Amino acid sequence: MTSGVVLLSGCTSSPDGGDRDEEAVRTATPGRAVTVLDQASPAARALAASTTFFEHAPVVVLAPVDDVAARQEAVDRADGWGVPVLLDETPGHADGADTGEAGGAGPDPADETATAPATASAPEGTPSTGAPSTSDDALVTELERLGAVTVATVGDVALDGAAGLTVAPASEVAQEELPTQVPQGTAARVLTTATESGGAAAATARAAGAEVSALAEGDADPRTAEGVQALAGAGDAPVVLIGADFAGASGLEGAVASARTGVELPGGGQLVFDDRRYVALYGAPSSPVLGVLGEQGPEAAAQRAAQLTSEYAGLTSEAVVPMMEIIATVAAGDAGPDGDYSNELPVDQLLPYVEAAEAAGQYVVIDLQPGRTDFLTQAKRYEELLRRPGVGLALDPEWRLAPDQVHLRQIGGVDAAEVDAVSDWLADLVRTEALPQKMFVLHQFRASMLRDRASLDVSHPELATVVHVDGQGSQPDKQATWSFLHEDAPAGIHWGWKNFYDEDEPMLTPQQTMAHVSPVPDIVTYQ
User: What does the radius of gyration of the chain's CA atoms come to, in whole angstroms?
Assistant: First the structure.
């Protein structure tokens, strides 16, 4: 740890012969790139924050965990004095729940214990810091570690076993006992959940000089718009995440690395479905027969996608983002030189569409129709494009053939294991390159197209997985397919719906699509 120093009173001789102030406040900077304070109770998080952000503090503020008014006063004093704030969780305060009895106050929004999960181990590489409880023994141990001389209490606390300490109401602590300068401060950047932003742990971080930002209500992912904006200027400073809602989350270290880049997806932030939906044009460059995207050049396609998306304005409370789904490998009627029944378009043929979409603030998905080869082999052909922040990947199992199959004679399909191999590779690419989350689309209109779908691994936080229902024809048939494919789908899946200009009977209008397709699709694609 590194520390900053503020002098309070006279100096004594240090072991190296220099002067050292034994009453100095010394802040600390975590040695890890990411530290997670996700303990279940606010008292435990406060204790962990003290350990994380302070090496030495002669004055500490202490309040009961179940007294809302006292906790708020303690937070205010710690902010102003530049010292840690701890919470008493001894009998009478032990459950950490706010009773609303103190001063007639209601439930404290900073107290998450009523709904927070039990303290869990943080993901590998981002261990939690601090003790699991804040008994008197734990409080006294922390006060001794800090070298505390004065415990400034707010509210009704009973600190036993605190020999050698001055325990006094905060209102009676003499001014000369307090820091007279602002500490040099920790170099850490702090991100809290919304419910934690006014809590004791966040106050301790601010008291140590940390820059503290909060996510929006209900969010616990650094890749939201608020998280990216908060961490974009963090450079290589250590990041501390505070809040019980971070408990059990996977991929936090990678999410922080991505947020540090400051790169945002169309619509803001780095999460694909962060309060937004998509409207897409589908097709292959210069091939009108394969979809409407190929009916015009790149810039005109971007304009058409934007115009089509504008027709969804006002039909949903969420933002609607234009998108292009570009067929990169096209199913072929003959084996071709490589024998795979798939024509792989070169990157330079796709790039103008990708660049036109990027310039227009639109998302892009690269679509694969692999024939007799496997999806991963084809996906790796387009790694150059997939390294771009706003480019996702789609797999089209209809065109994934067995060794003895031919397109249009059979409808293809793929095993979950092959899909998982692609998602593993793509998630690793996102982590390695510190990219925003990527859309990962799986096309389906028959159960056989995604065999053993229930076993798909959709746990990668780097990916937002979509099952895109591609049924065409009469609306009753399309609705039946839509409903059937929702049965027994893996939890956390997003959903896409396709409108066909020529094949649907009739094609739904934007108003009908949003009103009559239930649940409302996350993506509406036009072919």
Answer: 28
For 310-354, the DSSP string reads HTTTTSSSSEEEEEEEEEEEEE-SS-TTTTSSEEEPPHHHHHHHH
The partner residues of 496 in beta bridges, in order of sequence, read: 468, 523
Among residues 299, 259, 279, 360, the alpha carbon closest in space to that of 34 is found at 259
Closest to 420 (Cα-Cα) out of 445, 443, 440, 444: 440
| Helix, strand, or coil (residue 207) | helix
What is the spatial distance between Cα 199 and Cα 110, in angstroms, rounded to a whole number? 5
Residues 6+ apart with CB under 8 A from 185: 4, 27, 208, 209, 210
CA angle 15, 21, 23 (to 5 degrees): 130
Dihedrals φ, ψ of 445, to 5°?
-135, 0
Residues forming beta bridges with residue 190, ordered by sequence position = 212, 240
Do residues 240 and 486 make contact, with C-beta atoms less than 8 angstroms apart?
no
Q: Give the integer Cα–Cα distance in Å for 271 and 224.
A: 6
| Dihedral sign of CA atoms 64, 68, 73, 78 in order | positive
Q: What is the pLDDT of residues 96-154, one digit of tens each?
A: 443 333 233 333 333 333 223 223 333 333 333 433 344 578 899 999 999 998 999 99
Q: Nearest Cα to 62, choosing from 137, 181, 143?
A: 143
In order, the DSSP letters of 510-526 are HHHHHHHSSSPPSEEEE
Angle of helix 42-53 versus helix 136-146 axis, rounded to 10: 20
364 DSSP β-pair partners: 324, 391
> What global pTM score does this model have?
0.86
Do the beta carbons of residue 54 and residue 204 sit within 8 Å?
yes
Distance CA 437, CA 53 (A): 31
Q: Are strands 85-88 and 59-64 parallel, antiparallel or unpaired?
A: parallel
- The one-letter code for the residue type at 108 is D
The pLDDT score that the predictor gives to residue 181 is: 54
Residue 284 has what DSSP assignment? B
E strands, 120-195, are: 150-153, 166-169, 189-192
Euclidean distance between CA atoms 302 and 283, whole angstroms: 13
Specify whether the CB–CB gap between 257 and 47 falls below 8 A: no
Q: How far apart are CA 94 and CA 72, in angstroms?
A: 18
Residue 477 in tokens: 């048939």
SS3 string, 414-461, reads EEHHHHHHHHHHHHHHHHHHCCCCEEEEEEECCHHHEECHHHCCCCCC
Residue 37, judged by CB atoms within 10 A of its CB (0-12, 13-18, 19+), counts as buried
The whole-angstrom separation of Cα 520 and Cα 273 is: 13
pLDDT in tens, 7-42: 222 233 333 443 334 567 899 999 999 999 999 999
Domains of the chain listed by start with CATH number: 2-261 (no CATH), 280-526 (3.20.20)
